[in-house]
Amino acid sequence: MSIEIDVVVGHPDNDEVERVLRLAETVAGPVTVTFMWEGREEAERRVLVPAATLALWEHWAPSAYPASGVEAEEPELAHPAGFGEFTLFRRRVGRRTAVARDGVVVAELLEPGEAHWLQETARNVRQGFMDPKQKAAFEEFLARQAAKGDGSA
């Protein structure tokens, strides 16, 4: 299950962003957010991924998100943006934004394509992985199945 939230941010001191960040923590999974920043014409669509979920995805994903589909743009240098007890740090490389509270990164805002790719890649790799004991038990199970099918059992 996923949750989609639209947020309209009018001023940097608006607590709407803080409420969304708190909601993402309680959901404990990816949350799609659309930001309408003041002074910008286009909406900014991101996926807010809790740090533990992102760490799990990145553990299982065998490589980094392919950069071929990402348009090259000049990195934007800006001061970190504070929203209540949360601080957003936009990365100079890539399109990620780290979300920190009390000096600890609790989530990251990712491009929807990157979040989807990480989640799918991690799931596919994880499903193909078995630890040595599990692999041996599965091979034993398969060997018993083959013996039954041969008519020798």
Number of helical segments? 4
The number of strands is: 7
Q: What Rg do the Cα atoms give?
A: 21 Å
User: How are strands sequenced across the largest beta sheet?
Assistant: 1-2-3-7-6-5-4
Low-confidence stretches: none
Identify the quaternary structure here: single chain
> Biggest sheet, in brief?
7 strands, mixed
**N- to C-terminal distance:** 45 Å
Which of globular, elongated, flat, extended, rod-shaped describes the shape? Answer: elongated
Instruction: Estimate percent helicity.
Output: 25-40%
What is the N-to-C succession of helices and strands? EHEEHEEEEHH
Description:
By secondary structure, the protein is of the alpha+beta class. The model has no long low-confidence stretch (mean pLDDT about 80). It is built from four helices and seven strands, in the order βαββαββββαα. About 35% of the residues lie in helices and about 25% in strands. The chain is elongated. It has a seven-stranded mixed sheet with strand order 1-2-3-7-6-5-4. The chain has helices at about 15-25, 50-60, 110-125, 130-150, and strands at about 5-10, 30-35, 45-50, 80-85, 85-90, 95-100, 105-110.
